[in-house]
Specification:
The structure is a homodimer of 273-residue chains.
Chain A: E1 4-7, H1 19-23, E2 26-34, E3 37-38, H2 41-55, H3 62-72, E4 79-86, E5 103-110, H4 116-120, E6 123-132, H5 147-155, E7 163-168, E8 173-176, E9 180-185, E10 188-192, H6 202-213, E11 218-221, H7 225-229, E12 233-238, E13 242-249, E14 252-253, H8 258-266
Parallel strand pairs in A: 6-7, 6-13, 10-11
Antiparallel strand pairs in A: 1-5, 2-3, 2-4, 4-5, 7-8, 9-10, 9-12, 12-13, 13-14
Chain lengths: 273, 273
């Protein structure tokens, strides 16, 4: 089973003049689907809509996207659904066309299971050399300009860690290479504020909501590397794998802690999915 | 006459799985061609090669690119040649494939003349609100992640200026929205160093070489906005338009100065070319 690609609903290639390719002028969402349903589609669509507004790209119709996904999603098995929305084709130059016709690209891929031990025992993390550039205009949204994450991944080619830890140019912790990060200190949760760089993940938002339901306090704040290094518990989140406890951070070993376990249970995150 | 697009030598669409689209994982060059020849192809290819090395993308063969351009370039008229090189198609996730097969996209477009008055009387510039994020790993090369330039252009939608002036997050002047900038002070040239953000333009390099030939001193340095505002002469450069004197910078009016004119003559830049 291979990935199914649909470009504006057609099984075709992408216009080489598309501004998504030319300038990274667009957004994407990567979603987990189970039994014919996209998990947390509300949150994904909400972030896409915010991104479109921030970039002045017309937001694609929600029913159109939902219908297209539903028509192609396997009914029983899990799947990965990726949606790219670009400003569409344009003439030469950075200047956006006055009336953009967005391009919608949908990819439905077979699910690939993550190792059960990543949930049970936790994952390994080390700090990347690369620092994220800071631009509040681009912070939070999931835009297509991701060379920083690509370069960070190139640092991790030895395969010795499951996530790299990314700091911003000022040395604040932002998150993992493809995840958000939470720490537990004194029983309370803290997570980077994501106001200067980084992506506000859908799972990050789900964890913040779950914490409220469990009467756990969460602070969105600036975190230094030493805050993470000295925390009682550390975990990373993304929409596909959910929550992974951090078992190793540089030289330090951490146990999977009780707050992390409570959140994983509450959000039904585990080795079986 | 429309743009001719070739994707790996074929008149086809782009693979939706291409990492250039997914992550801005690639580079581009925009070149000016005259009478069947690309101007300063050496410098364009050199920057592309540097970019490929920095991003760990195999550099496309020079003879292949030159041959493809030569086969399609109009023999007499001017043209705009754009080359995109991406890391090629990949599986899901930021991690680059171990043996990437780069994608080569070539676009040959009809030339569009710039207004003669931009050369004779100069252009208008105003400072953009958007500040460029700083990342030395991405500075200088012409990679595909250009949302900052797109957002800067959105600020200029009123059409009242020909270039926006871009500062970095720390407030240093970096360049125009699609150009590099030079100032003249005490008869000497100064231009931003382009070590933390911005693109090292081909025309910028040509101006630095021309200045040496004319026994003008050039310093690549940090420039503050007040340095540009108080300069004797200011001009912007890019590979398509060449050199434009700056006639208006915010509220300030500037004359087209003698150093700018000398460089324009030496490099054969003018309203007819």
């Amino acid at each position: 089973v291979e990935t199914l690609w649909l470009v504006n609903g057609e099984r075709s290639g992408v216009d080489p003049a598309d501004r998504g390719l030319a300038y990274g002028d667009g957004l994407f969402e990567t979603m987990r689907a189970e039994r014919g349903t996209v998990k947390r589609f509300d949150l994904h669509y909400e972030r896409l809509r915010e991104g479109c507004e921030r970039l002045a790209i017309p937001t694609p119709n929600r029913a159109l996207i939902e219908g297209e996904i539903a028509a192609h999603l396997p009914a029983q098995s899990r799947a990965i659904v990726k949606l790219i929305v670009t400003r569409g084709a344009g003439t030469r130059g950075y200047r956006p066309p006055p009336h953009p016709q967005p391009t919608r690209i949908l990819a439905i891929s077979p699910w690939v299971d993550y190792p059960a031990k990543h949930y049970a025992q936790g994952v390994r993390v080390r700090t990347c050399e690369l620092r994220l550039g800071e631009n509040p205009h681009l912070a939070g949204i999931k835009h297509l300009c991701r060379l920083e994450q690509v370069l960070a991944q190139l640092e991790l080619r030895d395969g010795e860690v499951e996530q790299g830890l990314l700091l911003d140019a000022s040395g604040r912790v932002i998150g993992g290479t493809s995840s958000n990060i939470f720490i537990v200190r004194g029983g309370n949760l803290e997570t980077p504020a994501i106001t200067r760089c980084g992506i506000r993940g859908v799972m990050r938002r789900a964890v913040i909501a779950a914490a409220a339901e469990l009467a756990l306090r969460v602070t969105e704040t600036d975190l230094a590397l030493r805050d993470v290094e000295s925390a009682n518990e550390v975990f990373v989140t993304n929409a596909l794998f959910g929550i992974w406890p951090v078992a190793q951070l540089g030289e330090r070993r951490l146990d999977v802690g009780p707050v992390t376990r409570r959140l994983m249970r509450h959000l039904e995150v585990g080795g079986d999915g």
